[in-house]
Every structure is written in C-alpha cells, then in structure tokens.
Amino acid sequence: MEKDDLLITAAQAQLALSAEEAGRLETAVSEMLDYFEMMNEVDVSNLPPTTHALVRENALREDNPNPNNNQEDLVNRAPENEDNFIVIPNVL
Amino acid sequence: MAASTSYETFIGLEIHIQLLTETKIFCGCKSKFGDKPNSNVCPVCLGYPGVLPALNEHAVELSYKVCRAMNCDLAKEGMFERKNYFYPDLTKNYQISQFEKPFGRNGYFEYESGGGIKRIRFHEIHLEEDAGKMIHQGGRSFCDYNRAGTCLLEIVTEPEFKEPQEAEDFLQAFRRTVRHLGVCDGNMEEGSLRCDANISINTPGAGLGVKTEVKNLNSSRFVKKALQYERRRQEKVLKSGGKIIQETRLWDEDKSVTESMRTKEEAHDYRYFPEPDLPPFRPDQAFFDMIEKSQIELPLARKQRLTEDYGLTPDQADYIVEEKAAADYFEAVVALGADAKTAAKWIMGNVAKELNRIDLSKADLGTEKCALSAERLTKLLGMLADNKIHGKIAAQTLAAIFNEDKDPEVIVKEQGWDSSADEGDLEKIVQQILDENPRVVEQIRGGDQKPRGFVVGKVMKATQGTANPQSVQSIIGKLIG
C-alpha cells in the first residue's frame, strides 16, 4: 500500500497517525490487503453481485406518522443543548 | 439572447426536491417545515446505534411517479447505498442514498425557451435522505435534525444547457411540473426545491471545460444571474491566460457575485457501499401499472391543448396552466357550458382581481376556500352572454359572490340588477329622457353622435346602472331613427 493511500484512509476514518504508527501500519495493512487479494482469484464472472445478505426484498413501511415521545430526552442526551438545538463546536 | 462570446457554454443543474410525504424516509417522524427544533426526531433519524431504517412506501411511489413523468427508464431493481462523509448535518456519518441502482435513469424533459420547445436529458433520478440544518454562531454550531431523514429526490441533468436563460426557463417549467404532479410544493425560498448549477466554458468543439459548481441559488432568477456572472468570470480568466480551478462557489445575492468557498484539497471519496439494513426494492407489475395510472397531462402538453382546442392565447393558457387547480377549474367551467375564451378572459381579469382583493390566489380556485365555484362562474358568464346583465353589473355580481357567498342569480335578483326585466320599460325610460331633452334629439338627428352618450348616462342613472348600454343605444336608434 502506498503511504499516501494509508494517510488518506486514516484521515477518512478520523484517525491521527503518528509517523511511527504510519510506518508500522504501512507494512501491516499491505499484508492484510494481500490476504484479501486471495479472494480475487475466485472466478465470479457468472455471479450477480451480492448486495444484501438476507433473502428479502420490498420491505416497506406505510407513510403514517408514528411520533416519538422522547424528543426531549434525546436532546438532553447531547453534551450541550440550547433552545432545543443540539449544540456543538463551530464546524464552519 | 446569446452573449457575444467566443466560447461554448455547458450548464448542468442538480435539483433536490422534498417529497410531499407525511413522514420521513426511514422512520415515522413527521416531515414538516417550521416546527420547533428537534421536535420531529427519533433514534432512527438521529443515528443512534442499533436502529433500523424502514423505507417509506409513499416516498418510493412519488419517486417513480417523477421518474416516469421525466421519461426515465424505471428501475426494476432499486437499491440504497451509504454515502460516507463526516459532517454533523447527519449524525450517522453517512447519508443513505442511491448510487448503483437509482430509481430512474436516462430521462428527458421538454420545456419552452426562446419561443421554441427544448429538451434536456437527465442522467439519473435518485431518492435519498435529507440532512439536518445548522446555524453557525460564534464558536458554536446549533443543530436541528427535524429535516434530517426527510424524503429528498435528486435530479441531475446532463450539462446541456447552452445559456443561463435556458437553465432558468427549464427550472420554472420543472417546478410547475412537480407541483402539478403533487409530489413537491416547489417552494424555493423554504428550500423544498433546491438547485445547484455547474458551468464550464471551452473553445467551440473542444467539449466540456473545467467546471465550477455554484450553490446558494434560492430562486430561478438567481440561477440565471449567477450563471451569467460565472460565465463572464470564467471568460475573463481564460482570456487573460489563466486556468479555471474546479471548485464550489457561493452566489452572494447582495453583491451579485459568486465567491469561492474554502474547500478541502482532496477530491471527495464517499466510499459508497450497499446499505446492509435495506433490502433491494423490486417492484411487481401491479406497481408499475399503478405508476402508469398516476400519470397526468403535464403542464406543457396541457398548455398546448388549451391553445389548440379552446383558442386561448399563449399568455392566457400560460396563466391558467401555471396552477393545476386553475387549469382544472377553467376546464370545469368550460365543461359546464361557458364560452372558453370568455372564461379565460374573466379568470385572468376580474376573477384574478377579486382573488387578489381577498388574499386568495388562482391556486385556490375550485377549492372550498373560494366562494366562486365553477358552477357560479358559469352561471354568471351565462347571464352575461344572455344579456341579462351587462359587464359592469357582472363585475359587481362577481364581487358580491365573494363577499356574500351566494349564487349569482340570487344576488342579481336581490339587488334588482336584472337588465332584461322588461325591454318595454327601458324603452319608456329612454323616450321620457328624449322628451325631456329636445335639443339633444335634434343634435342626434343632425348627425352628432356625442349626445347619445349623454342619453345613455341618463338612462343608466335612472335604472341605477342595470340597463345594458348596448340595448339603450339600439333603443335610441329605434326611437330617433
């Protein structure tokens, strides 16, 4: 695995890697990916892609309101709230 | 019209419409604009661990309805994917959307622009969940998740508009169409219809250039203005030997400019993968039949039919077709026997004025809010056509229908406005006025037509305005010769 790819992957996973960790993971992740590579040896050209593990389809719900009664509780679970808003550090 | 430019322009639009469902896409929370913050939330739309999404049937139906109206290939299998991004407008760190198998593909839509019919193609139409709203203030961001998880349909056009004006014309026609379909209220200010635009320019024949995306366009007029600005800006950059940077820009309404948004350097990688919590949607033939049955005559076709079948002017047809309620109302009035052109003239004129006076609009025509039912307007126009009342009295009667919520015949009778009461009576009145004004009679006999108006005025006064001026004129002619 290229180091750049590893750093991008880490950033997307919201992980801050030290240089030492990055160096160590570079080898380790490469080995893992090689291991996954084994799956590519199987011929799946005649199989439709699996998108779902369950043999199910069309699970639908009617468009009827089913109000939740614990909104207040849910808002209060946030570390900070004000005027019913959930408050977080400015992300703009 | 086309600006003098040595470049070819490519414009595409990405439109989001909020579907008119009662509840959100994956939970039973109410889908409602303007409620107290975080009052329509639950563990599902707040992304609590262990919850399961359940797809809203009506949202799927409305989506297919739009896809069909936009001439898409309808998906025999639709699927949902997770679009991963890290931003607190959604708490799950991903948005459930469609990627590999959207509900609609390869559609097109026809609209009027520049005096002709143009066609825009759609790349795809897909259903997804909307994100929450945030207000950023000082060191803090305030999150409201009432909108998080509401049903959002995304429509992406091919970059085939050649002019900003075309994009505006399309957007207005598209808005009208989704309103007619009853799938979206089309309110751009409240954000139930949102539009981002992308634009690139290039030397003719060279294909697409490097595009920029423009956001914050909350009216169709801003779409045009922002694109015009952005095209000029790109031309300046290219002419001075510079390069366009692919970026997102924000339209600043007050300054009428687009400004670069600070964006991260790396391209977005959303790492789409199938949503394991939602099985695929494979509709049966009955579903497709139901979608087919739900189709209506679209506004453009209806406008063409109204001009061809009823002889309306394009302006009249446009005015009436703008709201489905008004078009249905107009056709109801015609079906009840009113003359189509007269009905159109009245709906656009006196009726519009009255609606405006009492704070209604043509969208209210034919509804309970509006006292002027199709039957009442038909009767009113019938009395006018039969010369029972004349134009001015008809206008008064119209106002009285709105004020008193009564049938026009009742009003005319109660007020004694029936001018056809007795032609003989009218003749007597005219004769009396002529007798009282011998000089006027002489003038008229001498060929001076002006004093006729004086006589008509006197008669109108004597009959309290109910006499038909045309009848009075013909009686004068008859009596004086």
TrEMBL record, chain A:
Renumbered to this chain, region (Disordered) spans 59-80
Q: Which processes are annotated in GO (biological process)? A: glutaminyl-tRNAGln biosynthesis via transamidation; regulation of translational fidelity
Q: SUPFAM superfamilies attached here?
A: Glu-tRNAGln amidotransferase C subunit (SSF141000)
Report what the protein is called. Answer: Glutamyl-tRNA(Gln) amidotransferase subunit C
Q: Which Pfam families match?
A: GatC
Q: Which domain of life is it from?
A: Bacteria
TrEMBL record, chain B:
Specify whether Nucleotide-binding is a keyword of the entry. yes
User: What is the superkingdom listed in this entry's lineage?
Assistant: Bacteria
GO MF terms listed in the record are: ATP binding; glutaminyl-tRNA synthase (glutamine-hydrolyzing) activity
Entry's EC annotation: 6.3.5.-
Gene3D superfamilies to which the protein is assigned, alphabetical: 1.10.10.410, GatB domain, N-terminal subdomain (1.10.150.380)
**Catalytic reaction(s) noted:** L-glutamyl-tRNA(Gln) + L-glutamine + ATP + H2O = L-glutaminyl-tRNA(Gln) + L-glutamate + ADP + phosphate + H(+); L-aspartyl-tRNA(Asn) + L-glutamine + ATP + H2O = L-asparaginyl-tRNA(Asn) + L-glutamate + ADP + phosphate + 2 H(+)
| Asn/Gln amidotransferase domain location | 328-480
Listed under GO biological process in this entry are: glutaminyl-tRNAGln biosynthesis via transamidation; translation
Q: Entry's InterPro entries?
A: Asn/Gln-tRNA_amidoTrfase_suB/E (IPR017959), Asn/Gln-tRNA_Trfase_suB/E_cat (IPR006075), Asn/Gln_amidotransferase (IPR018027), Asn/Gln_tRNA_amidoTrase-B-like (IPR003789), GatB (IPR004413), GatB_C_1 (IPR042114), GatB_Yqey_C_2 (IPR023168), Gln_synth/guanido_kin_cat_dom (IPR014746)
* Span of the signal peptide: none
A single Pfam family, by name? Answer: GatB_Yqey
The record's annotation in SUPFAM superfamilies points to: GatB/YqeY motif (SSF89095), Glutamine synthetase/guanido kinase (SSF55931)
Supply the alphabetized keyword list: ATP-binding, Ligase, Nucleotide-binding, Protein biosynthesis
* Top EC class for this record: ligase
Family, per entry: Belongs to the GatB/GatE family. GatB subfamily.
PANTHER family tied to this protein: GLUTAMYL-TRNA GLN AMIDOTRANSFERASE SUBUNIT B MITOCHONDRIAL AND PROKARYOTIC PET112-RELATED, GLUTAMYL-TRNA(GLN) AMIDOTRANSFERASE SUBUNIT B, MITOCHONDRIAL
**Subunit structure of this chain's protein:** Heterotrimer of A, B and C subunits.
**HAMAP family listed in its UniProt record:** GatB (MF_00121)
Protein name listed in UniProt: Aspartyl/glutamyl-tRNA(Asn/Gln) amidotransferase subunit B
What's the encoding gene here?
A: gatB
